[in-house]
Every structure is written in C-alpha cells, then in structure tokens.
Specification:
about 60 residues, mainly alpha, about 55% helix, about 0% strand, elongated
C-alpha cells in the first residue's frame, strides 16, 4: 500500500461535529469521510474543467 500524506487540519468544531454525524451515517471514520469528500470534490472539479465534447457540425449541402 502506498504511503499516505499526513496533514494537520484545523477545523471549526461545528463543522467537525457535522462531519462526524455524516461519517457515522455512512459507516466511515471521520478521516475516511474527509478523504471521500475531498475525492468527490476533485472528481467534480475535473469533470467541470474537461472541455465539452460536441460532435463536429456536418456541412450542409
């Protein structure tokens, strides 16, 4: 397994409590929940930044 980067996170206590509840609902640890949230945000950002693929317009006769 690849090594994981450790990072100290300072977070508002109310936000922490909300993430704890969300993690419990999803049967995840808080750490796993934060990683899930970050992965989803990155995935959505990548998807948004990709150029839209539209079929080329056909020349009308």
């Amino acid at each position: 397994m690849a090594a994981r980067k450790q990072y100290l996170l300072r977070i508002d206590p109310d936000l922490w409590a909300e993430i704890e509840r969300w993690a419990a609902d999803d049967l995840r640890s808080v750490n796993a929940q934060i990683e899930y949230i970050l992965r989803e945000a990155v995935r959505k950002r990548r998807k948004k930044s990709l150029p839209e693929t539209t079929p080329p317009e056909e020349d009308a006769p």
